[in-house]
Amino acid sequence: MIPISEQMDLLRAGTLEIIKEAELEEKLARAGKEGRPLVVKQGFDPSAPDLHLGHAIGLRKLRQFQDLGHRVVVIIGDYTGMVGDPSERSDTRPRLTHEQVLANAATYNEQLRKIVDPDPAKLEVVMNGAWFSRMSFADVMDLAGKYTVARILERDDFTARFKGELPISIHELFYPLMQGYDSVEIRADVELGATEQKFNCLVAREIQKAYGVEPEVVMLLPVLEGTDGVKRMSKSTGNYIGISEAPREIYGKTMSVPDEIIARYFELAACVSDEEAAEVRRELADPAVNPRDLKRRLARAIVALYYSEDEARGAEEEFDRIFAKGGLPDEIPEPEVVLAGQGDLSSVWIVAVVKGAGLAASNGEARRLIQQGGLRVDGEVVRDVDYALSLEEPRLIQAGKRRFVRIVPANVRLEG
RNA sequence: GGGGAGGUUCCCGAGUGGUCAAAGGGAACAGACUGUAAAUCUGUCGGCGAAGCCUUCGGAGGUUCGAAUCCUCCCCUCCCCA
Description:
Number of strands: 14
CATH superfamily of the largest domain: HUPs
Distance between the termini: 73 Å
Number of domains: 3
Helix content: 40-55%
Number of helices: 18
Strand order of the largest sheet: 1-6-5-2-3-4
Radius of gyration: 26 Å
Largest sheet: 6 strands, mixed
Strand content: 5-15%
CATH architecture of the largest domain: 3-Layer(aba) Sandwich
Low-confidence stretches: 87-94
């Protein structure tokens, strides 16, 4: 058994705040004495089926708890997902249907296993519909009676929306209460969350007390910025790097991160040691060091974390080939191409080809791409929007710097 | 229930009878450059084989040669009063 003080050091590493440390210490001690593992909770919003590097921070902390012998309960918020977390939102979220939520939640399970220990004794994944779907209206009123409007409105984003005269639907006020009730149901000892979850987690403590359950310890973790370097990483913003993405995608997306957050990514996304992080900061400050090279190292480290050193090197080689040397990727998709209003394969209008291959959403977009010099056919730039192309032979089409498509006659369908 | 302010293209937001497919910013896409899918700069950014035409400014009608802009009704949001 590891001494409590060491457990605390381990768990404290990388967390921004623990509410309250003394309670955690107490819980750890009791768990050790009674041989009863702690229940560690983290909730996920099922609106986005891809787990990304931001989620990974919390998942790794969950893993630490598991390795110390504790039990992790991951809550897929299928019911809360129908509300949508109002955190950091300036507007009402679009409501998902229950079917959408279920479909999204299904993919979480598999992805979780990339980081968290899947041993059923140490991991439980539940959807909060398990209890919310069974609550009667009287139960809901009971829950609603445990908290006050003023306390809910203390929350920044509600206040901001309220002051900004923006709509807040009644059901959104329930979000923190529901999240809190999850903690009641599973008897959570600890809840992990990114800093923006502080309010929700603190409400959970109150709700637990109101239901006569010992309040959970709240551990707040840093929020990772997305690939734009500013907004927090999230699927809906489109600035995320998914942990299940292909190595080349993870590598490439990492390379697109602004230089300013390289060090932060080393710490939070590549989770290097403190010494290494310090070394990176030194190098970043050194004008002789090209930040690009640090970013390459970062990208390799992140890929290696989810795949392997080999795959990381492979992704790097491919990246260099495409961007530094203008070469080709390892795999080039061969999509179905539907051509409308074209006579035969020997002479096909280039605009129709680009659109048909899915490289542009409309003829206008395809035309623009061509006019701007962004289109290559078999390596040659084509700028003529009236260009006629024979598709009787396979063709390599490149749109911009990184979208490649091979058109083979067998995949071409003429329509109209 | 009464009074007031609003709903504009992916997002924010200007526009109050023609010069509006609609300013500006963001996002996105392309090009240049480079140290990289960073930064910066430039261009594009509703649809149509591009000519002119078609569809768009909460919805439905109406006025007008002409409507995002004016009128009527409806839907939705916010504020104040009750």
